[in-house]
Amino acid sequence: MGFDALANAFVELALGGNLLYLAAGILLGLSFGVIPGLGGTTALALIIPATYSMEPIEAMYLAGGAMGATSFGGSVTAILLNTPGTAPNAATTFDGYPLARQGKAGLAIGASAAASALGGLIGLFTLLLFIPIARDVVLSFGPAEFFLLTVLGLAAIAVSVRGKLLRGLIAGGIGLMFAFVGFDSISGDIRYAGGINYLWDGIPLVPTLTGMFAISQMMELALKGGSVAQSGKDEKFAITGVGEGVLAVFRHWPVLLRGSAIGTIIGAIPGLGGTVAAFLSYSSVVQTDRDPDSYGKGNIKGVIAPESANNAKDGGSLIPTVAFGIPGSAETALFLAILVLHGMDPGPGILMHREREVYGLIVALTASAVGASIIGLLLARWLVLITKIDVGVVVPVVIAVSLIGVYVLEGRMADVALTVVMGVIGYLMIRFDYPRLTLVIALVMGDIAERSLHQVNLISDGNILGFMLDRPVSVILIAAIVITFLLPTLRRVMAGRRPG
Questions:
Q1: Three-point CA angle 444, 445, 447, nearest 5°
Q2: Helix or strand or coil: residue 112?
Q3: Hey, which of 131-140, 158-167, 274-283, 463-472 has the most confident mean pLDDT?
Q4: Neighbours of 453 (CB within 10 A)
Q5: Could you report how far apart the first and last alpha carbons of the chain are, in Å?
Q6: Measured on CA atoms in the order 278, 283, 288, 291, is the torsion positive or negative?
Q7: Phi-psi map region of 232: left, alpha, beta (phi>0 left; psi -120 to 50 alpha)
Q8: CA 71, CA 302: separation in Å to the nearest integer?
Q9: Which of 121, 142, 270, 433 is the least crowded, having the fewest Cβ atoms under 10 Å away?
């Protein structure tokens, strides 16, 4: 098992009829990725019944094609409309959309396409290296490590909101309040639901993200008028910079490698997924850059970092899913259902007895990441024209598609109502300059942090710190948290020492 099996899988894909299934998966993934509120989860949910009559390897190519393509599809609307097609693409909006506003949408799309493809390739090879040690890596993360990892993510986001620390803390506090709504995972009590049955399971993430980033942005665009790209030029529009965006990824290869590594590692940890990976990758590049103030204003590295992590996480998320039957993300949870449907029981045995299907899936994910990026580059000249359309046309279309996408997930009108409420809250945060990022991250990580802290408290008989200091991975994470909090101070000290 290894590179020989991988080569055989590529040969089988090239010579067999499975290429059609892969192509269908890529087109489906791109379509669902571009439509805000849908994404890979919905695509895979629709694929499951379609795979009943397929061979297992055919189902792997179809599902893998859809999984690998949604990431880049979601980045298109994130860049052009500040509306992430999928939750992880929210991090791409911070610098991708400002570039589109400056008339540089081609640059951002080119960088996103190249970072997505290369991130997928790096994730593939990292996965191949991880498979022999997957068991030790995954099992080294217990409740203590989960808690510290969420704290690290929150700390990284908090210190990256430069000049808005108090507002960022307020937004993060609101996000934590949202995260605590619903059932207490330890006691089973219902908290802060206000007697509304819909909130018993907590505040759903997809309607929240769609409202915060799609609806709120459309409200702002509607009030401003004009078009998305406000370059101030009246001459005939010509898209440029796609090739420059591709070259930018190679010029900033350390950002690409770091983002891919973060994506692979976070993807391998069950329960975190692409949203955490993309935001951590983005915050890491902001904190370590010599000019952090340039982020949020159109820094191309702010596109490369989250997009490379977003595609690399697919390879990492397969480690716990295939090896232990523990989904690493929402998409892999549905993929797990496809495995079981075709008689493949996830666990160590699948790596020995189902080598053809496992490596077929790896090839599908890799080929779909590259294929989706190539299609995106070919269509870039037409995609960026969206930014020149009057907002009077864009706003109602995006709002309608977003609300429909939210509704079809569960078929609940309450999701639509929540999306609208979150859209109003998001617009008010834009209006009064409060960072939406900290609220979203706190919402995503709040439940994980609370549950893990309760578990650590029970396991350690109340001696939480002593328990953590006895675990090597926990010590490494504690050191990373301390360094994260010290980075702004160190940056100020270094800036003070520079000659004026």
A1: 95
A2: helix
A3: 463-472
A4: 19
A5: 58
A6: positive
A7: left
A8: 16
A9: 433
